[in-house]
Specification:
The protein is mainly beta and 120 residues long. It is 0% helix and 52% strand. The protein contains no helices and eleven strands. Strands 2, 4, 5, 6, 9, 10 and 11 form a seven-stranded mixed β-sheet that branches. Strands 1-3-8-7 form a four-stranded antiparallel β-sheet, with no helix packed on it. β4 and β5 form a beta hairpin.
Length: 120
Amino acid sequence: QVQLVESGGGLVQAGGSLRLSCAPSGSTFAIDSMGWYRQAPGKQRELVATITSGGSTNYADPVKGRVTISGDNAKNAVYLQMNSLKPEDTAVYYCLIRAPTTTGRPANFWGTGTLVTVSS
């Protein structure tokens, strides 16, 4: 079973920056895409940003211009640089790695989450 290890969360003041990292604890494998999602208290998990193995990125509107996703395919690592953080960015952030399978349906591997708290 793939285990993803996340790091970089913490408490930061509004306007500050954080960099989240995520990588598997064991062997690497082929990927389709990687991404970050977040879940605020009382809300559903939502997309933050994704990056394909080819480097194409996609960002949710609330974070556009403030966050940058990057990845290292060789390490299966994905990063999220977050700048100009706002209190509404407070959430547990989860990384997701999608890997191809022989069935044609990708396998999803989730991290356990890292808490980001932005104080006003």
